[in-house]
Structure formats: structure tokens, C-alpha cells
Amino acid sequence: MTVHAITEIKLVKASINKSGTTDILQNTDVTLSVIQDATYGYQWNKDNAMITGATTNTFTAKDAGIYNVTITANGCSSTTESVTVNLVTANEPNTYWNNVYFNAFPNPNEGHFTLEFTNNDNQPISLYLYDVLGKTMIQKVIKTKGKYSEVIDISTYPSGEYFLMLQKMILRKH
């Protein structure tokens, strides 16, 4: 008679941590992560399909989609609950992002558009306008709390598509 020993089996129950908001703008991302353990295997998935090469405990999401990760330990697998990453564009009026309500209109335009936002805290906001090749066309810091409105003139730039990015600056006092 053969006696088999039963070893302890860990049941992996993890949830996804996020480095910031999952409502991202064009050319931005959010880092997703789960607990790290050298004995675990990881496979990140987007929209129910495996992401090739995404086999560590962290993944940087640059596109909209529904993300989860399958964690394998001791031959058993468990998949986390999903996290939805949304791509926020200026085509969505009165968009809420990182404690800021903003709108850019008209879109498309003929060389002038209005940027409006309400900043609900004192954190400065960096404004960037990129062309389709990623060249920075406008870069400035806006230090305001409350309502802000500006007509932005791009009439001297070639016709085409441009990407507007607002980035909240986080100031820390040491």
C-alpha cells in the first residue's frame, strides 16, 4: 500500500490595485498590479483575451478595455475581478477626470477651440497639445482653482488631428 502525503495548497484570492484613475486620456496610462509572489504565475487579459508577454504582477494599460489577471499557484488558477479602463476624449462633453470637469469645443474646429474646466482643488494642471506624430505643439501650466476658460488658437498649425492632454500635477511638501 502506498501512502501519499497531502501538501498545503494556497488559494490565490487577489484584487487589482490601480496607480491612478482608470479614466485615461490619449497618450496616458494606468498601472495595474496584484500581489507579488515568486511562486505565482501571472497572465494578464484584456477583453477576455490573453495579452502576449504580460506575465508579471504588474501591467501598464494604455488602451480602453476590461482587464483582469489569472494567477497560478501550485497548479491551481484564480482570475481576479475585472477592472474597466476608459479612454476619455474631448468628444465627450463635460467629462470628469481626476477631480476636474472639462470640455473642449467645437470638435472638429477651424483653428480655434474653447477649453473649459473646473478644477476642484488647488493642484496646477499641465496642458499639452500634440500633433499625430507626438510633437508637442503647446505646453503650459495652468494654476487656477474653480472655473477656467480659454480660446486656444491653432490656426497657424497644419490641418490635421491633434491630441489635447490635461495632466494634474501633484505637489508634495517635504
From TrEMBL:
Entry superkingdom: Bacteria
Record-annotated Secretion system C-terminal sorting domain positions: 105-168
Classification via Gene3D superfamilies: Immunoglobulins
InterPro entries noted in UniProt: Ig-like_fold (IPR013783), Secre_tail (IPR026444)
Protein name: Secretion system C-terminal sorting domain-containing protein
Source species: Arcicella rosea
